[in-house]
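Give me the fold.
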Amino acid sequence: SKTKALIVAAGLGSRLKSHTENLPKCMLDFGGKTLLERQLSAYRECDINNISVVRGYKKNKINYKNIKYFDNKNYGKNNILNSIFYGEEAINGNIIIAYSDILFESNVVKRLLESENDISVVVDIDWRGYYIGRKDHPIEEAENVIFNSNNEVVKIGKIATEKQEVHGEFIGMIKLTNRGTEIFKQNFHRVKKLYWDKPFQRAKTFQNAYLTDMIQELVDIGVKVHCTIIERGWKEIGTVEDYRNALKEFNQ
């Protein structure tokens, strides 16, 4: 069945300082198009036209046509994992769920679409170079992945890179099949009941959990999470420095 996309764009983007005073970070301009427009183009190039966006901060600034919107009214008090589930009614069938602050080529999406696994995450194995000279976003903040010889996730999240041999960086994009969405949703509701207001995986409370915390939970209970391996072809736009560097490349 046709694959859909759900883009999570509710966050404040506070590390982009003045750039996000009046705009969500996905509305930053890159060579005449917003970051979100560039994402939409990449999905549409791969024949993904059923696209939903979870909005929150400055939500009225995101209003493209032919997109379904879900609003996270508590965006100031929760994090990515809970934000995703404001769009739960879209999470069925084959779906890609992704962060809104990544700039990526359509090839990345194409690679992910080739995966037939129930749960697949995109992992860049040529990731360390992105952190050279990147002062505002140190390597310790990367969402890293350790995977086994079958390319299945063993560990994911902000792993102490100097202590363990890390294989790649999770770029913030996951694909679920119909069976994958059921596993994902059932386990989200299971852990939500157990850990609300309590520590969950690496998060201080369940409300503050990242997507990677949920993925680690799935791995811990024996669910196979497959890595779709890429080498470059994307960028995270998390800080002013990231934005300036990306713009420099655009202008070249």
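The first strand starts at residue 3 and ends at 9.
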